[in-house]
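haha ok so turns out i had the wrong file open the whole time. this is the CORRECT one, sorry everyone. sequence first:
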Amino acid sequence: MVKKIIVTIVLVLVALLLAPAKASALEAPHLSATYKGGDSAWLSWTPVAGANKYQILYGPKTNPWVHGVVLGEGGLDVTSGYSVKGLFRNTSYVFTVKATRNGEVSMTSNWVWVTTGPTGRAPLPAGAVGSMPGKPTMPSMVWATPGTVRGNVTVYWNEMPDGAYNIVYTDDLSVEKWGVIDISSSARSYTIYGLTPGKTYYVWMSTRTSKQTNWVKVVAR
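then structure:
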């Protein structure tokens, strides 16, 4: 009897090991992109049934996933299209998108490429990485650099027509871990202290009434 039970258990374990991994119930979107001139590109994708958020990842081909935005967070509507602004001039960009639902994430879409013309955004200062949002009520430019000492990152931005600034930063895009609120409206930079040297962080901004910017990825010194 005991031998029969052991054999049954072994067969069940083997069946579990050989069973195919459960695929995500969310289908991967199919992505298309069109350069719209200047510093912008229009992304559109097939809607995914059941999705309540979309994650867009993009960047220059030389540093592909340095930027991102989540539709369905920070006041951004869940749609199947998005205008990406602030692209550098004469630069090839790669884009992809994922659908999400309550922590479940689809496979990434196909990758698409867009090459900007000579009227795009001017280059950032040496060593900086940054993004420009698509809404006029956000800062017109956001970028970040490793700080001057270990464990620091400095965030920079242009004018904001809407009062004091808030900064959110994290080392895990699924969680908004830390933040700084009510930075003076006259400020144009802020240094974040106490970060882990060599670790990657994601930083974005907003005001009390604006939608959040796209995030920018930076490695602490």
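Residues 9-14, 16-23, 131-138 have pLDDT under 50 and may be disordered.
again sry for the mixup
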